[in-house]
Structure prediction request, 1398 residues.
Amino acid sequence: MSRIITEAGLRELAEAWLRDGQAVAGPSEVKLGLIQYRPITAAARLLFDGFVHPANSIKEFFFPRHEPLYRYRLEGSRVVLEDCEPPAVKQLVFARPCDAAALPVLDHVFNWDCADEFYNRRREATTVVTLACSRYDDECFCTSVGLGPAAEQGADAVLFALGGGAFEVRPTTAKGDAAFADRTEESDRTATPFAGPPRRVALPRVEFDSPVWEDATLECLGCGACAYTCPTCHCFDIVDEGNAAGGMRAKNWDSCQFSLFTLHASGHNPRHAQPRRQRQRIYHKFHIYPEKFGPILCTGCGNCARQCPAGLGVLNVLKAIEASHAEHLPA
Amino acid sequence: MSETNGFEPKIVAYVCNWCTYLGADLAGTNRLEYPPNVRLIRLPCTGRIDFNLIVKAFEMSADAVLVSGCHPGDCHYTAGNYHARRRWMLFRPLLEALGFDLRRIHFTWISAAEGRKFQQVIAEITESARKLGPYRPYEANGESKWRPAGLPPPKRRSGDDASLRTTARELLAEGKAGVVIGRGERGPVLARKPEDADRLTWNGASKIALTAYLKRKEVRALGKPAIVAGPADLRALNVLEQESQIRREDIHVIAAEGPGAAPPDFSDLDALLQLEPGERMAYWAGEFDRCVKCYACRQACPLCYCERCIVDKNRPQAIDTSAHARGNFAWHITRAFHLAGRCVGCGACTRACPAGIDLRLLNQAAARAAERQFGYRAGADPKAEPLVGVYSLTDKEEFIG
Amino acid sequence: MARVGVFTCWCGENIARTVDVERVTEDVSRLPGVRCSVHYKYMCSDPGQALVRERIAADRLDRVVVASCSPHMHLKTFRRAVASAGLNPFLLEMANVREHCSWVHHNKEQATRKAVDLIRMSVERVKHNRPLDPIRVPVTRRALVIGGGVAGIQAALDIADAGYEVALVEREPSIGGKMAGLSETFPTLDCSQCILTPRMVEAGQHPRIKLYTYSEVEEVTGYVGNFEVTIRQKARYVDVEKCSGCGDCWNVCPLKKNPSEFDFGMGFRRSIYIPFPQAVPARPVIDKKTCAKLIRNGCGLCEKKCTRGAINFKDEDRLVKEEVGVVVVATGYRLYSIGKQQENGKLSGYGEYGYGQYKDVIDSLQFERLVSASGPTSGALKRPSDGKEPKTVVFISCVGSRDNAKGIPYCSKICCMYTAKHAMLYRHKVHDGEAHVFYMDIRAGGKGYEEFVRRAIEQDGAHYHRGRVSKITEENGKLVVRGADTLAGVPLTIEADLVVLAAAMRPAAGVETLAQKLNVGYDEFGWLLESHPKLRPVETNAAGVFICGACHAPKDIPESVAQASAAAGKVAVLFANEELSRDPEVARINEQTCAACYACRRACPYHAIEAAEVRSPKGAFVKNTARVNPGLCMGCGTCVAVCPSKSADLDGFSEQQVYAMVEALA
Prediction:
């Protein structure tokens, strides 16, 4: 036996959250051919099928691209500080499993030496409902990083398309259960398992000193498209913005692919060329982060490759590393 | 003092030291009363007044901005006002495309003898700003349903891949080129070894302009580059040469056969300009709301080659780095203006944008102004004088009071 | 954190009447960084300035804002005041609360609030002011004068007499210019050569003047106080050191029929020649275009005749370098070429006057040679075609000048006067002759000028007709001049023996190229541009380059000489000190972030930005960059606005200072 919900039922669920003044986000078509995770104001905007992966990730709903930490005002000669709070509303986020799977990974870094209350509060206030995949494209490689089209990590409930506008609901947490309480019907239909993309690469050993970085990543132009659409990249910059009357201190996304990321005040830049920066990104995902926290910093969503203006991406670099190892195998 | 709803606009005036500032002094000496809403900022010359200052004034909640300097021919520095006029001619169409209310920006020539004119101008601007009401910087008023048709798919190039590869292989093998910059199936290819040449194809994937690689230090270090160039690339090379970034003899060009550059297609821009200014602003606010400031537009552009982009400079912070409405508007206005008279219309910014923002339309607004006002198309003629940094005595100034 | 002191002035009642100075002082005292806020009745008075000095010391202020009148009124006063207290004068800002506030607003509440705003802007700005020191540029106290006409000679003599060395460059074989060829000069009718020749000799013999005749300026590098000039000395084929100017060589030269440039083709010269008997230096040159030895290794008589061995047929152009601190341009004028053929598309000629077609239609400089006592006819008036004395002469003024259709809208200024002189000289020589003058207007402004024209008409009986000549034809050996007398309202036809056309003045050939070498501006006609038409008439926008004489605009001799002396005066002022001290509010380039697109270099009105290279301490090339020459920069800031990465900035009006003001308005 399974619990099922219709597409109309899902939209009704979203409408109910919106009616209660809570937030809903999910895949929606922002313009012809472009699907992004967006906060939505009407449930009709939500897309449940017909696409592989939105052009961004859901990290924005937990770790926004721009988040004021506190504000200040000058009153005469006094400086008045005002704390900033993340919005108190609950969020319902519809996501792909590879996006949701990033959340438990990110929990580590945002609760390591200091607990990021902005992140944690958003995390607590959010219910993540994933839409298990029924298709993939050339860039998908979740199965190569130990996940899959129906991975449950980070999800409060997983939806499986049954066809005919119906979805099987498998709550995985109490939050997920609560979200669908009284909204599902009992049914004997269950989803057919979907294998997802073939394993495209065996996770290779990542070497710091290797000619592969130069060989495989020289095409990188140094923008932040990969990092900013990646569900796991989490670097940020603390900036002060203000004027003579007041201002704020804010947390803004940053990317190790920018040449300024490691530029010292002296003018020296330890990562002086783009392949060094690419190395940092891959090395961090597959060596530094797992060494420190356990999980690797990649869910195989493939956004980095889809969004890279130069056609690179994690998978391609990993493949190049794999190939370079093969070359060096003894004959 | 007017009683219009009690709203008193804030007006920022950037004036030159030698004419308008002295004109304002004369108004004072002659006790010519005017509304107290204006704050003058004295600069040596209108030539010093950058459009970023206008943007910044509005960010600081100015309701109107005045830029005023010496009459043509009167500039203390001979030509600063002409340079300013030339820049405003390109800046205004850009603001127009953004849906900015141009009634809030005023340009005048006021001489040191025109205390009376200064008084009148301030009175008029104040009155007009009162009527317009408070300005909310870059806030969308509602939502726009308008969507551009978008970039056409890249034209297929007639060319023989085999001979392309042979050419590239030979260049690399004979050491005539250190790198061949071309396209492969997945995207750009930087062929460094003769065997890399097999990855090249005329009709590969391309979200960027290949000429963007010429600015990269890593690529420059490889030795003399050869580049597989289409019409837009050739124009970009011309602009890069005009701006002393390359020398053509240092670059081997493998040009595609077939027709040259098609004239730019301004139909989306025309459609955008059909909208009410308010809707245009709403359209852009919706687009920029998706901008995460990944700077793919900048990195993919062949002509964004600054060592340090202005957005990466923080003394002062001319553009907020945060990806909020204010910071995003300032960034995209700045980028488009820095490309005014330079953009070759390759479309790389638009193709590279992961958020699908049609940045091309902003560049086109300035490009069309360049065509209409100056008969100038960037990169079309390598010998042409660049558009910015020069001026003509006959530049039009119908917008200057 | 800056320690700012704010000093608000009452200006008696001028400010205090509409601005509540006490409240302003109180409000301002709470602004961040303000350590002291005081007011005083007259801040510019001695006790007011003393107050500023005292508080700087007492409150250890490192920045000062004076809220009073316009900086155009008292910026210098207060800069001196803070400097005397030991603070760098550029750490002072003013807030104009009088001209821009109290004098133009009546509502005290509003004016007071505005005054606080204006002061806040200045306080925020001054926090970003940097201490600046005057820029000092060493000066090479030698001058280059380009052009050896009357203006150049005068300028060279004045500078040399002031005690400085001068290099005088003249492209013709002799100095003297156009004036050396004139017959007599208006309005006094003194002989041109009589007054000029002594000056030429003086210049030639002056211990501090080095003559470079038959030479041209090839290249100019450097900037004010520090120019390096390359001079091309054209091959003369005569060693001026060995030559004594005896004349044996030119008397023996068999090639006698070369048209003389000095006589504008009215006379002839040999292939080895001095242009005119009083030439300075009195040393011949060989015309390589006609000399038989140089063309086909024939003749060589002059070489055989010369006892001093001064002839050198193997002579070549030489490049000489001169280091100078200033350049004076005195390149003069030429006449518009009247015929159909013009050198550029902007000008068109007068086919209908038959110049170049009829031998007896000549221009005014040719006429000068015809009536000159030292001219080809030794002053006897003989017309070119048959050498007969012309009995009827028609003078036409404004040929080209004031005619938009010909591309010359300006007035050539001197033609009215010399045409009157010509008519007079003609009548003095040919007592029974008729002189007719066609004119548009008579412009005779100048000392004794109007009287001179009246004399030509009333005493010397010249017939003046107000009107234009439409066509000149040759019929039966006569030139038939068809025109109109618009005052009489009748068409007029005159059968003349000689027609003299007062052609428009144009800048000397090649002046545009020279101006480009010097970075001096020129207008669409090629006249060089002065820095300011009223207040800086002999300066140019290229610091250290001065102009005088007819390279600037049509001028007569007295004006040219006056301007030459003015330029020399300017040079002497500049040379009065060993180094130049300049305002330090100039641009600078952050070479680390400069992308070397050179938009700034294109935009700079003063050519103060150059392409340069950044090199490592060991001298390895790092990158290209733009670089400001602070000796040339005038501080307009145009470079800042066109620099996309804001690698250009302007001290005194820096990006940080200006943004701080705007952001103070939030």
